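# nightly structure sweep
# worker-07 picked up a monomer target from the shared queue
# config: single-sequence mode, recycle default, output format = structure tokens
# input follows
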Amino acid sequence: MNTDLVIIGAGAAGLFAACEAADAGLKAVLLERRHRAGLKLLMCGNNRCNLSHVGTADELLRAYGSPVRDFLAPAIRALPPSDLQRWFQSRLGLRTKILGNRIYPYSEKGDDVLHAFLDHLRDRDFPIAYSAPAEEVQRLDDGFLVRTPNFHLETRSLLLTIGGFSYPRTGSVGDGERFGKMLGVPFEEARAGLVGLELPPRHPLSQLSGSTDVQEVIVTVPSLPPVAGNLLVENGVLRGAAVFDLTRLAARHRLDDYSLSIDFFPHESLPQLERRLKAMLARTGSPRTAINALGLPPMVAEALAEDGVATAGQLKEYRPGKLYPRPLKEAIVTIGGFARSAFDPETMECHQLPGLHAAGEVLDIDGPTGGYNLHAAFATAQLAIRHLAGRTSRKGAAPEPRRRDDRPASRQGDPRKSAWGKHFWDGKRPTR
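# output follows
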């Protein structure tokens, strides 16, 4: 065997798992198909990297909802949001802050999260192989064989953190489905979740240029509960938390009909809105001006008026017509993946293939927008590594956490190396 553990995929789950493995003293290597790590991580929250959502473990689990909630319960309870914040501070030296019930790095820069992960791994001499796509995974009698175009590895354990199908340019190309066929692990059909909805080409809202944000609406489709959040209208596509979370629920329930209704004034009753609209129409004589005066952005008000909206009832139940989800490659999260029934939720280990673990989006798990999906990736990765570390310690001596200063003097490296680590960002220059 070349190593005890191969982690495939250097995204959010893979980087978190690698840091846990390094600190547990596991003999492991991280493989990444792209030329650098964390490309999709950098896109999260428009590069602000929404790490998690404020709340207790039980509050988060309620937000994930059925059927994901029960599977994620052990992982989320082992790493609730407050513990995740402490993990980033104590392990990586990364401060966090809370904005609108969401947890961000203090700088609000995804680059700093990625640098913190990679600095931690570099300081522990943890090996990462870039431009190393896993072309084949094969079960051996005592482990697994992983083949890349330029080398192969034999490992006792394998952790798949290869993501889903969305944003394939970042490396999430759907390898889970291919590996599932190779290993005989059931895979649930991939569908788009947290994705935009395309308006009909000639719809008045589709003519809006740029991005227009409506702060809070409620969207509803038949047979699903109403979903609240903001609404973005951008280049003929409806986005924002309300739409994203609705598409996740629709994909989970395998609904194809997106004939939704939008309540533009969720905090007002119909009689209240009728009185206000009537007063505004009497004052302005223009539906567009009146709707704008009620609180909607000017361009949205103009588009609604052009579409014939002139009553409070139409503003409380606006129906833009049949909408179509954007392609899976544009989705924030993939619905589907390795079947949850094939993995132990307490360990993330495959029931039928001991030694095979999975974490993050490659599993059939997902959450609402707002940090839930990154948190699920981190929590499942931690559970998998802690199980693997416990198994290693049971076979022999317990692994001791490794720190940079624990390395032999001959491997401490040139002190100039730290210029790209913690001292660089403090404005300090290493001495020669």
